[in-house]
What does this fold into?
Amino acid sequence: MENYLVMQDITRVYDNGCIANDKVNFSAKKGEIHAICGENGAGKTTLMKMLFGIEQPDEGKIIIKGQEVKLTSPTKAIEAGIGMVHQHFMLVPSLTVAENVILGIEPTKGMKFDMDKAVAMTEEVCKKYGFDIDPRARVEDITVGLKQKVEIVKALVKGCDILILDEPTAVLTPQETAELFVQLKLLRESGKTIIFISHKLHEVKELCDQVTVIRKGHTVANFSTEGVTEADISRAMIGVDIELQVAKTPAQPKENVMVVKDLVVNNYVGKKVVKNVSFSLRAGEIVGLAGVEGNGQREMIDAMTGLGVYAGGSITMLGEEVKTKNIKGLRKLGLVHVPEDRMTLGIARKMSIKENMVADKMDNPRYAGKIFMNKKTIQEDTDSFIKEYRVLCKNGEQPIFGLSGGNIQKVVVAREFTSYNRLVVVDQPTRGIDVGAAEFIRERLVQMRDEGKAVFLISADLGELMNLSDSLMVMHGGEISAYFPDITNLTEDELGFYMLGVKKMSDEEIRGALHE
It folds into this structure.
């Protein structure tokens, strides 16, 4: 079977001299699911941006169905039959499914928008490819899994034959992931070519036909997934063998570091989204939090870290009420926070890597002299952090916005993990991170636990939660729906049922488990 898509000797050099892609070659057949794997900063995103017309190559060719194409914009890419579903959904929450699906190709009746036609267009594609979605539902009212499907339908309505999926399962439960894989296999059977970007190697093995590995801007390997192991793929990605599981000894919990009691949080319209939640975080223990997005965990984390207010109950850290402290005050108590939204809350975009790495340490006597800042020490520490946390960059003076998303995450993690800490709140710490960096971050979390720190881990990666957590909570509908003080016999499927609300522990069971 001939290659349907060929990207030949693709080179992309940025204005700062950074070579993102150096003669990269990639090809995919019609009716194939083809994975692209690589470390953060390896060049995957840049390559896909060029395929979708967001950027243009400095050298090389893109050939579709034997014809060279010039993809000078996303519009040109869509005309060439290419669709892309971004990691962060590009949907308008206040609009219906149908209105989102037809954005850019709006049908009209006379001078007015034709809603009935939009619904019909959406229903036609949903029926053809087996998507069970209500076209008239508002996007803000549907689940994360359905939003993912709406993005795919949006691309299919525009006639895509090549579908790019960037980390599509990052926020899905196992059940939603399984559903998505069924749909993708149906699309493959109908002749669609799917490019699947993921760091979850078990998913690559389960779903994909081929995998291409990119390392440091070069194509280094192409495998049939049938005859390759996860270890083979990870070795090609980073050049060394890594352990896919983090080894840790049983926890030795000590005193409470933070106590949350009868917590109530209202959202921006006054609706109660966290409902009388109680739990504690102890030194020397990693407590995991699982939950489908939108079940109150975001508002609860904001309240705990000083980013939001709470309407009732109390949160105390080392005996002091959190609401009486500002962010600096909480940091002095030893609370550090790796936020989910690294771009908005994690960095100052206009500053350098160095400035972002030490932003919270500027009043540290190590850096602050009597009159001037100790620039030599700041530089030495920054260089050390960059090396230790494997940030791919030229140097610390480089603007942080020039880094890949995964490398920006490494900067955020480096700053927080090297600050004074008694409680480490980490929200999606390895999302979009390559396997080598993810392994390092997970090992550091276990190391901090063993040093007597309290660790609160929020992650959509259930494998990560179950590998790292000593005990595990589940949130659904603004409440703790389950608490597992011992997760030895817990399965991902069982956890998924509690996350979706199919199962729920009684209040007595939860209280009993919390106080074991």
User: Anything to note?
Assistant: The mean pLDDT is 89.
